[in-house]
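In response to a reviewer's request, we include the raw inputs and outputs for one of the modeled complexes. The four entities were modeled together in a single run.
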Amino acid sequence: MKSEIEVFREFIRNKGLRKTPEREQVVRAVFAIHDHFDVDELYVLLRRQNEKISKATIYRTIPLLLESGLIQEAYFEDGHLHYEHIYGHEHHCHLRCLECGKVIEFTEEIVKEVEEKVGERYDFLVTGHKLEVYGHCGKCKVHQ
Amino acid sequence: MKSEIEVFREFIRNKGLRKTPEREQVVRAVFAIHDHFDVDELYVLLRRQNEKISKATIYRTIPLLLESGLIQEAYFEDGHLHYEHIYGHEHHCHLRCLECGKVIEFTEEIVKEVEEKVGERYDFLVTGHKLEVYGHCGKCKVHQ
DNA sequence: GATATTATCGCAATTCGTTCTCAATAAGGA
DNA sequence: TCCTTATTGAGAACGAATTGCGATAATATC
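The model returned the following structure tokens for the whole complex.
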């Protein structure tokens, strides 16, 4: 299996874009965070490593990462988008606590069936899905 | 079945808030749009009706509508959230075309099972879910 | 390897959605 | 009817995201 950087380089090459250290630092930062992340977290992480990458560059790199299939939008919260890397990961869904905000990742095969059924029913070529289940986690539901 | 306005009034009363014409105009606008909507669409609709409701009031009313269960967040697109009214509607999921942006609503019973399974597995009191399936619609997939 | 072309960079300014501030208003209880 | 105070509208403020621009550096060409 190719590494993230290799996938990214291939993507960049195929698009006729330039391979730059800044973009690759962003890719590395993205895959160094083994969790959901937002632009500011990337920025802070890169800053701590004494990499002087501007936020503008991070914002300009995000669409490339999305398009190359390395990351995807996870959810919108606190006034901005959060992402997660998906390359090399099994697809998963999110279970979110409405009270404490905790997010658990889970996988569920049945959802694949839903994809197929719905795709057929409405003549869609389905490429993916995003499922978020929400409620109250074990700790929080006690206090009610 | 109670009307939206009645549900809203009850909610307002129970919370000890005040019944105002501005809030009720927003509720009416929300249920006048039989589709997904965003804040600006509400604003424009109210403007056309010569209702002088400020955007601030709309923004302040949205959380009340969410909390009362009359509406829910549908998806984040074009830099802002889109909502839909759910009161009086069967729960549904979204099928979105990544190319033309078309959104189809569908219902699928299996998802309920996923809710139950996951809730049990992680000790959650599940209250709902949001499922978005995406891909390329019949028209768009031809052009590829 | 040197040179030319132009994509990309950082910075600052800008845009855009949303929230806040505050004085004026009006809802609802006394 | 009066009083208290939640709510309103208008605009300022805020934060996320985008864009313009001069400087820089990655690639193609020689």
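As requested, we also summarize the result in words. Residues 18-20, 39-40, 55-56, 59-60, 79-81 of chain A lie near DNA strand D (CB under 10 Å from a C1'). Chain A has six helices and five strands.
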